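Ubiquinone biosynthesis O-methyltransferase, Thiobacillus sedimenti. C-alpha cells?
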Amino acid sequence: MSNVDAAEIAKFSELAHRWWDPNSEFRPLHEINPLRLKWIDKLAPLAGRKVLDVGCGGGILAEAMAGAGATVSGIDLSEKALKVAKLHLYESGKQVDYQLISAEDYAAQHAGEFDVVTCMEMLEHVPDPASVVAACAKLVKPGGRVFFSTLNRNAKSYLFAIIGAEYVLKLLPRGTHDYAKFIQPAELARMAREAGLDTEELTGMTYNPLTKVYRLEADTDVNYLLATRKSET
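C-alpha cells:
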C-alpha cells in the first residue's frame, strides 16, 4: 500500500457519488469512453476475454467492457468509488467483480490470469507509476495486451490540461491534475519495456472546445493512449 497518494484517493472519493452523472465532473470520462472502448476492442477484441481494469473508479470503462462481452474485474483504492460502481451494476444489469486492492497486491495474487489489462487515466495519480506498470505486466498472460492512457508533460499539456480544462473551460475540478506527475510517452514506453511489455500502438486524444468533440488522432501532445503486448516467452 506504499504506492498510494492519500490526497488523490480522498479527492476522487469526495466526488464518487457523481461518477455516473454524465453532466458532472466526470462528464469527460463519459464522453471519451466510447472512443477508448472502440480502440481497445479493435486491438484486442473483448468478447470472451478475461479483462482487468486497474484504477476502475466508478466503473465506466469496466461496465462498457463487460457490455462488449468480456469477463471483467475492476480494482481501485477508493472505497466510495467502488461502492458506487457496485451499486450501478443493479441499474445496468452488467457483471463486474470489483475489489478494493492495489495493483501490486492484486498482481501478487493473480499473476498471468488476464488476457487484457487496462489502466486508464490513473498513472498520473500515483507516486510510482512504474510500479503500477510492472504490476499490470505481471497480471497479463504471455501474449496478452495492456492498455494505458495518461497525460504528456510539456508546456502545451500544462496549458490545455490544467489551465484550459480546469480553469477556463471548467471541464474538470481545479486541482484534478498535478503537472509534475504527467508522463511523457517515451517515459511510459520505457516503463513498459522494463516490465516486459512491447509497444504496439501510440495514439493521441484531442478535444475541440468549439465543437466539444473528442477524437483519437496522431497528436500526443496532451492526452495519449499506449497499447502494449507481453512477450509470448
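The mean pLDDT is 94.
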